[in-house]
Design brief:
Nucleoside Triphosphate Pyrophosphohydrolase, alpha+beta, eight-stranded mixed beta sheet, binds the ligand COc1nc(N)nc2c1ncn2[C@H]1C[C@H](O)[C@@H](COP(=O)(O)OP(=O)(O)OP(=O)(O)O)O1, metal-binding, 8 strands, NUDIX_hydrolase_dom, Oxidized purine nucleoside triphosphate hydrolase, metal ion binding
């Protein structure tokens, strides 16, 4: 549980913490497990594949509702906050930035509609053996495989100012 302690200390000491969601839509496609990723078209992380998510807004009733709202806005599907399954926490720091990102990670299997391109994300289904880690955030290959195995995660990744690589990290993976 080293990561959980480190994450708690980081959040306690940070001058500013901003809450984000990050959700992964999962499906069984005729016996093949697939995850929906989106190519981020603008803003933070543009040009990378990622799950769907964003800032938790004061108007969101719960963090799960925020995760569902972001999924609905970015992939144009309908997901209920109550169908969001919380899978853990990731904390990201960036050298020279006082603000710490507290990312609430979810998975979801229940949705309606067909994932479609929005102004922020271009969605695509990937089989678990074809996830484009080379075009994702540097941290993803450390924890996403565990998430896709159904595990819970708590981690912290401390990135350089240029946001391309991290110089330190801790990660706890536990059975769900
Ligand atoms: C640093 O490593 C990261 N890895 C991964 N996998 N995901 C990350 C990382 N840092 C941030 N994220 C996620 C967290 C959020 O889901 C998004 C960022 O949210 P964004 O800035 O796009 O928030 P919005 O509210 O959608 O932004 P707009 O104001 O542009 O609508 O990336």
């Amino acid at each position: 549980m080293a990561a959980a302690r480190r994450v708690a200390d980081t959040l306690f000491k940070a001058p500013k913490v901003k809450h984000y969601t990050l959700a992964f839509l999962l499906r069984d496609n005729n016996g093949t497990k697939e995850v929906l990723l989106g190519m981020k078209k603008r803003g933070f992380g543009a040009g990378k594949w990622n799950g769907f998510g964003g800032k938790v807004e004061p108007t969101d009733a719960t963090v799960s509702d925020a995760a569902a709202r972001e999924m609905n806005e970015e992939a144009l599907v309908t997901v209920l906050g109550s169908d969001m399954e919380e899978k853990g926490t990731l904390v990201f720091t960036f050298t020279g930035k006082p603000e710490v990102m507290h990312v609430h990670v979810f998975q979801v299997r229940s949705y309606s509609g067909v994932p479609s391109e929005s102004d922020e994300m271009k969605p695509q289904w990937f089989t678990y053996d074809a996830i484009p880690y080379a075009s994702m955030w540097a941290d993803d290959k450390y924890w996403l495989p565990s998430l896709l195995e159904g595990k819970n995660i708590v981690g912290q990744f401390d990135f350089d100012a240029d946001e391309t690589k991290f110089y330190d990290h801790v990660l706890d993976v536990t059975d769900a």
